[in-house]
Structure formats: structure tokens, C-alpha cells
Amino acid sequence: MRYWWASQGNKFPIVMEQRILWSRPTDSGALPYSRVCLKEMRRGDVVFHYSGPFLRAVSRVGEEWESASRPPGHREKRFNEGWRVRVEPLKLDLEIPWQRVAELINHGSPGPFTSKGKPALKYASPLNEEEGLRLLQEAGVSLSPDGANAESLLGCPATSWVGEGSDGEALGTVRREQAHLRRHLLQGRTAAPCSICGEVLPARLLIAGHIKPRNLCTEEERVDFTAAAMLICVLGCDALFEWGYIVVDTTGHVDLGRPAETKDLEAAVDQLVGKTCTVHNASTATNFEAHRSLITHSS
Prior knowledge:
Order of helices and strands: EHEHEEEEHEHEEHEEEHEHEEHH
Distance between the termini: 39 Å
Shape: globular
Number of strands: 15
Structural class: alpha+beta
Low-confidence stretches: 145-164, 168-174
Mean pLDDT: 84
Helix content: 10-25%
Largest sheet: 7 strands, mixed
């Protein structure tokens, strides 16, 4: 497993919504290592996402690079063909100032900071293991020691987690039940509908999204697979639900959550409002109400 730094600038929200890293040759056709290094990223590698002035998220490489055209939201330039790496977010909503990061990692090439200890103007950079572990600790992120990935656990459905407990010690805690929860929701399918928008998508674009935030769930709630989570797509529904822009009401319909800050965000929310959440039922209703109550009281 390797560690990487990716500087996204104002494209950070797009990156997190699309769950990808994408790069291309420069306008002159050059292939600097800070762009080409996407081809060295391997499944399970850790990526630290920077958008000045903060380190904002941590993810893990879910799929290695493939040739890909310019994704939506990226400004048209000379080269529109490049390389795409898919990532799986581990933690969002970080705000670790770059000045603090500069205290934890080395300065100068090949890293992401200049010799003077300031963020360098380059897209991606490798970090050594010591630097990666320091940043993980600072971000409060724990990794499974075996690097297991949920995609490899498709198969016979499970109805509950039968391990020794859903938390296990690693650098901190590991979500032991998470892969089994996703397997339960997929029921062996390679494609399934998103519980919010209803679009049928490949399994790689669906995650096991907790209805009530996992950190607020009791151990019993975490391991109750019939009520804990839903399959939700990474094409927008996951982020909109997690950030509280949409909620599910007592009738099982998608409703407005916290106010949208931009017209484009408002339009994305409006496309979902009124849709029927396919997993709202007697088992999940309490968790949906808990999520809605959290958003209502925090807005």
C-alpha cells in the first residue's frame, strides 16, 4: 500500500461527487510525473485530498487507472483524453490547515510541498509510509490491516454481522461489518437500483450508506442489517443525503433538507424531491427519522 497527495483546487466538490481522480497531458503535450503518477496508484492505496487552504478528505483507490475522456465539470482544454482512477472516500469534511500538514511531512521534491514548506503547484505527489501514517492519525482515519475491499465480498447474502463486534483495533477502529453490510444489500447482484433516485447502476457505483450516521448508532443498530443502511449511488445521492440536502419523510418520500447554497445544487436537489425511497419501511423508518431530525436541528 502506498500513500498519495492530490491537489484539487476548486474541483474538490466534483472529485468527491464523481469519486474519481483524472489527469491528462499538459497543453504543450508534456507528461510531468505529477500527472502521470496516477498510473502508479494501486487498489487499496490511500489518497489525501487537498483544496486550499485545507486537507479536506481521505480516500482509498478502488479501481486502478484506465483511459478516460474529460469528466463533466472539467474545463475544456487542448487534451481531452487522459487517465482516470476511481476512489472510495474514507473521511470527508476535514479542515486540516496546510500549515499543520507542513509540520507532518517532508518538504521538497517529490512531495507536495516546496522546499520552503508551502503547497507546490502540482497535481499528485507520493508520500512515504511515515508521512502517510502521520496524516491518517491527524485526520482520525483508521484502516483495516488487511486492506480488504468490499468489492471482493460479493456472494451469498448475510442477514446480520456474526463477528465478535463491529469495531476492531487497528490504528484506531475498523468498520468490521461494513463489507458484509454491503454484501447483504447487494444480495449477489452486479447491478441494482439506488434507493433514492431509483436508477439501476453497476455495483461499483453503489455504496452501503448508513441512514442514521454510523457514529451515532449503538452496536445493536450497527449490526441490524435490515435497518442500518441503504444502497445509494455515488453519482450524487450519497453526498446529498450525507450532507443533509435531502431527507426522507415519514411517508417514505424524498424531501428538502438543509438549504442549498447554489442554484446548481438546488437544481440537483429538486430532481430528487418527491421520489419514493424504496427502502423506507417499518424497519428503517426510525433511522430515517433520526437522520431527518439531525438535519432539522442543525440547519
